[in-house]
Amino acid sequence: MEKIIKPRGTMDVMAPDVFAWNYIEGIVRETAEVFGFTEIKTPTFEEIGLFKRGVGETTDVVQKEMYSFTDKDGTMYALRPEGTASVVRALIENGKISDTLPLKYFYIINCFRYEKPEAGRSREFVQFGSEMFGAPSSLADFTIISLADSVLKKIGLKNIKLHINSIGCPKCRPIYREELVKYLRANESYLCDTCRERMETNPLRVLDCKNDSCKKVAQNAPKTIDHLCEECKEHFEDLKSSLDACGIDYVVDPHIVRGLDYYTKTVFEFIAEGIGSQSTVCGGGRYDGLMEELGGPKMPGIGFGMGITRLILAMKQDGIEPPVLAVPELYVASMGKNAGRKGLEIVSELRKAGINAETDLVGRSLKAQMKYADKISAKYVLIIGDSELEANKASLKEMATGEQTELTLDKITEYIISKNI
Predict the structure, then answer these.
(1) Which of 377, 380, 382 is nearest to 393 (CA)?
(2) Would you tell me how many other CB atoms lie within 10 Å of the CB of residue 264?
(3) What's the pTM value of the predicted model, to 2 decimals?
(4) Domain-wise residue ranges, the chain
(5) Do 17-172+228-318 and 330-416 agree at the fold level?
(6) In the predicted model, is pLDDT for residue 300 greater than 90?
(7) Looking at the domain 330-416, which fold is it?
(8) What percent of the chain has pLDDT over 90?
(9) 343, 371, 370: which is closest to 358 by C-alpha?
(10) Which of 10, 229, 380, 391 could form a disulfide bond with 124, CB atoms 3.0-4.6 angstroms apart?
């Protein structure tokens, strides 16, 4: 019978990589909560109109990458390609927009995009995201960037650089857009077919194209930071001052524009050196008009998304070893049915006390059980047979030293617990 394999662009996560996933997720939750963010969970799929309005009709995400389907009642849905639009919808729908400001939420979610799979890019991916609403000042921008920076530093990543830019607001963006389109038209022959289309509908996306010819055009394109209004200039300068004051290094990168329509003013990326073409491990920015666009009140917002898979690639590049599964404190090797039952009793008592313990479940010989105990790196081994049961005592062997301690069977649990205090 033909075997069934996983869909292209998805992954099975198991040891040892699962230890890195759990390590990262633990740091994410702990750090986000220290910053005052509350976890939010949203549906895996939403009405497709949410992403068309929230992400943008002209983005690649909406036009090319969404997984969509028609429900039995005729409603069009899409698997979420990102988290922000769903969070905004949830806050509006559940009346959270009237809570005390700022609203601060984080999430760890699976997202889906139809893209060409490669290292650091898959069709199903896990994203850590944070969102803050109701805080218009650059201090909110700094806080979001500081949260991302703290997570990356706690993971232990070293070859990471923060790139920041400002792409302006509805007041100054049209002036810049006009200059950019004029420049792109003059260089149209060097653009790829996709960017020729983007040039009229979403010209900022041309600056983010990975095509070599388009990259060369983008290098000399007008820069957003040269066309900012006074308000956007002040906002950006204040952000830089906060980063300087708190010792967060950055580079101003005029080529950071991000790929979604909802961004305004501050945009940023944390880039990992040496993990390949998909080197952006975190990207985000401000989206002051998104809440209103999705039917809520006018309320500024800012946030980021951080890809777990790319973080793991960066960890491997830096040689960071995450904590692995705890090894058993005790392995009980038993001989015979009654001894096996006593072994289960001891193991159960230890597990109730929160201590990792194991015993034979597959009918191994004593020799095979001892090999297995060594393989799983058990700290202590206890052998129980008929003679041990009859005498109500056995020798507990410490595997690292070979030292043996004779104990009555009813004291084994107490002894192991005392070693863990």
Answers:
(1) 382
(2) 22
(3) 0.87
(4) 17-172+228-318, 330-416
(5) no
(6) yes
(7) Rossmann fold (3.40.50)
(8) 72
(9) 343
(10) 10
